[in-house]
Amino acid sequence: MGSRIHQLVLFLFIHFSFSIAQNDDGSVMRVLKDSWRNTPPNWEDNPDPCSGWDGIRCRDSRIISIILTSMGVTGTLSGDVGQLTELEILDLSYNRLTGPLSPRIGNLRKLRNLQLVDCDFSGPLPETLGSLESLTFLSLNLNGFTGPIPPSIGNLTNLYWLDLADNRLTGSIPVSSGNTPGLDNLTNALHFHLGGNRLSGDIPERIFHSNLDLIHLLLENNQLTGTIPDTLGLVKSLEVVRLDRNSLTGNVPSNINNLTNLFELYLSNNLLTGQVPNLTGLDALFYLDLSNNTFDLSDVPSWFTTLQSLTTLNMNSTSLVGQLPAELFSIPQLQNVDLSGNRLNGTLDIGSSQSDQLQQVDLQNNQIADFRQRRQSTIAVILVGNPICMETGATSDPFCSLPPNNDTPYSTQLEKCTSIDCRRGQASPNCRCAFPYTGNLVFRAPSFSDLGNRAIYEALRGQMIDYFRETQLPVDSVSLRNPSKNLDGYLVITLQLFPFADERFNRTGLVDVGFSLSNQTFKPNDTFGTYYFQAENYDFSAGASGGKSSNTGAIVGAVVGGCVLAALVIVAGLYVFRKKDQADRTTHESSPFALWDANNGSGAVPQVKGTKAFSFEELSKCTNNFSEFNNIGTGGYGMVYKGSLPDGQLVAIKRATRGSTQGGLEFKTEIELLSRVHHRNLVSLIGFCFDQGEQMLVYEYIVNGTVKDSLSGRSGFRLDWVRRLRIALGAARGLQYLHDLADPPIIHRDVKTNNILLDERLVAKVADFGLSKSLGDANRTHVTTQVKGTMGYMDPEYYMTNQLTEKSDVYSFGVVLLELITARNPIEKGKYIVREVKQAMDKSKELYNLQDILDPTIGLTTQLKGLERFVDIALRCVEEIGDRRPTMSEVVKEIESIMELAGLNPNAESTSNSAAYNNASKGSEHPYTNDSLFAYSGDHFPAKLDPK
């Protein structure tokens, strides 16, 4: 009894001491704790929140973040939170917190992120939200908030993400008036997510203006009336517009086709009138839904066939009249067409060259009298309710009945393993039972309609796995299953995340994983578009281990015995290690790959031809023991060093980071490929080192860096038109060699200006074969493989099919050609270089009217002989369909012809000796690092990149 009293007194003393020594943050946090239930257990063990409380981060004893995603916390959010004046992040998402949001939250002037996603908050949004002057991210979606949107939110000039969707908000959309702010003041905002509320009134004209950088406008499923304002056409940055399921009237603004960056447009289920809008020029449009409006009778629009990016065309009940052109069905990525409930007539001809992705054409309840079809077509054509199906005996035709629902539920492929019996609540995606973190990923504007396309979901899964590995979050594997469309038209996918190296997530790990989803840190590729996550409650306790042992003597005895045993093991281990080390050294002297471990992530023993195997000591000596002075770059692979071999030859040595399995795979790939290819336009591999646990590649040293460096000015010399033509020809010849003369053929898979190097005479050399693939034999036309490459250069056909071909390199090279004449990054501020050139060019004018986007340092426009043909071959290379692209041999011949047109000898050695140029500084990126900001591994076609 006395001992317990003593412990109680000691606890009270410690608690009192902390209360005096701490600032008020600790006291405030304990007040918040008292208003909540199911807080993390370690909150009970220590009175100081800054001493290891789960979900709490501090700086100088001040609380700067509270992140408690998916902790199962219940209760209310006390207004005392407003006293945490140093707070920068508050994320309580996926808990069951109720009650209103206190006006005192406006005291948190340093708050940058406020995320209360999918809780049960209610009541009006406080006007004091407008006092959070540092706020950049505001997500209050999926709650029960009522009342109007506070106009004061317009004061949050740093805000880029505003998500108030799926509440019960009412009233009009606030815009500024006099001294009253409004949402039109949010010029830095990229996202307005206001759908799923009860907003009413007109969409204000003043909310849109040319100073907005908005990319997502989501106002769907409200009670908005009036017309769509003409000012919408001023926001040319828009990529997704959802105005569907309102009561909007009047004509669609004629300037809507100014939105040339638009990917998804939803105007369905309104009361829109007038002519069907002219959407000519919306070349980036993937998804179009104008269904269920009251448009005037209109002929089938001629712009249908110009929208070559379309995957989905929904114009059910839009008063269309006439015959559909067969060209509509040859749009390359078209998946689904719904033109039911119109007055289409004549003969339906879907042509002989329709899109390979076309799944369904729904033309129910029209006036079609005949149908020409391909035999054995897999496309589901629905003509129920048309005259063709009212003829005698027509009902036996498959298109005269509704097709069965053949959707096969998607589920991640599981690893094959012996029978494994998991406990209740566990699952086993990779032959190991674990408790997954489960919820729904809900995508508000996916760019596709084919829910059965497994490749798309596998791409998303691969991207998530890559993300969690790169961020070192404790996720081992990802499972996706059961994609479906909900009543709002959103795509819903069940997500399960499995913990790394344990059967369950601990609270710290789950908080970080949950935050990555609530804060949109994980960004899926734009095939899926914007999303939100709804998490299920996670059980941290089921099957958990027991508490601490009270048997101190047993613990001490076990520790002592363990120490003695460990000492014996160490002594024995040292003896065995010395003997093994001697044997390993002897073995390595006879074979540099004798110790290669196929299970270490590097694959089987490489097959190399005539490439020197260096010892670690040799390379250490030639780099002055890998001194900092010799360090010329750093990349994802590891460090790059400049060295000098005993014969005086300069080399570049890529030294892999120890334990890097990706580096091991790249190491194996490069030494296998480069040891058997030799061409003046390919970087030469001199040797390698596989010694003392090291993996190093030894290349010839290329003095003038990358083409990217030269185009950006970092290399210190100017590339005129003639030099750019020679660089293009050299790189093309290097790729032609890989495709046509290597045995078997090689696909580079990462062609970009960062991987084209310039030697002392500015001869172009293709480098970095870490992602390259061999076709295996001469009869193969493609390799089916996970999509990898670099954003902006990636072949869209490869992305869609996972089938890598030589034409994938051709596409990437086409982007390189456009980069050579513009000196622009493939993706800049969300703009894609291919689209920018196509939109700017006018073949009826001099230099195709591209003067405004040409690199000013390229030379006088009067000297750019052959530039138009150069642009032509570049655009042929970046055709969406691989079969329409030229081969690399055809590209080489065309560039040679262009050079002859310019009065140049394509076979002459470059006379541009770089000895007179200033070399790039040591701090610039070295060509061998391959550490691009846009390095990518996963399925994503970058034309829809959201940089935020």
Low-confidence stretches: 1-22, 542-560, 582-592, 594-604, 911-948
Tell me the radius of gyration. 32 Å
CATH superfamily of one domain: Transferase(Phosphotransferase) domain 1
- Strand tally: 49
> Hey, roughly how much beta strand do the residues contain?
15-25%
End-to-end Cα distance, whole Å, is 61 Å
Number of discrete helical segments: 15
CATH class of one domain, named Mainly Alpha
Mean of all residue-level pLDDT scores: 82
Strand line-up of the largest beta sheet: 2-3-5-7-9-11-13-15-17-19-21-23-25-27-29
Largest sheet: 15 strands, mixed
CATH architecture of one domain: Orthogonal Bundle
Walkthrough of the structure:
With 948 residues, the chain is α/β, with parallel strands linked by helices. Among the domains are: 437-535, 2-Layer Sandwich (Alpha-Beta Plaits), CATH 3.30.70; 598-700, Phosphorylase Kinase, domain 1 (2-Layer Sandwich); 708-944, Transferase(Phosphotransferase), domain 1, CATH 1.10.510.10. It has 15 helices and 49 strands. The strands form 11 sheets. Strands 2-3-5-7-9-11-13-15-17-19-21-23-25-27-29 form a 15-stranded mixed β-sheet. Strand 35 (631-634) and strand 36 (638-644) form a beta hairpin. Helix 12 (806-822) packs antiparallel against helix 14 (867-877). The longest helix has 39 residues, at 552-590. It is globular. It starts with a helix and ends in an 11-residue tail after the last strand. The model is unreliable at 1-22, 542-560, 582-592, 594-604 and 911-948 (pLDDT under 50).
